[in-house]
């Protein structure tokens, strides 16, 4: 069960309105967590981020200046103590996702190069680039 707290600290769930130059509002709910547990996609904001720095120590009802992109201010709607914190393996999951994404980018770059390159000894075959599932299978065979 959540209970309201007065001041934003690590471990708090914060409901915010991000206010742009035109006065338009976008609601954002985050839980302030240690940097290694941050997972913004799932609503966990690292304590070392600029947004966390701007709101730590503030209270519900306050409107504070926050100049990032087209955002001009933040209104703090509600602050509660969060009962559910992220799992301990958030940093590991994030590192695995980054590794997977990097591999996908490298494969895409190789495919683009292979499909556009023509040399005096012949063309590259884009289909000769090993896929992720093929390379795993060959590693298991060894």
Model description:
The protein starts with a strand and ends with a helix. Helix content is 30%, strand content 31%. The chain has helices at residues 50-55, 90-116, 132-141, and strands at 3-4, 12-20, 25-33, 44-46, 63-68, 71-81, 118-119, 122-123. The model has no long low-confidence stretch (mean pLDDT 82). By secondary structure, it is α+β, with helices and mostly antiparallel strands. The chain has two domains: 3-81, Chitinase A, domain 3; 90-141. It contains three helices and eight strands. The strands form two sheets. Strands 1, 2, 3, 4, 5 and 6 form a six-stranded mixed sheet that branches. Strands 7-8 form a two-stranded antiparallel ribbon.
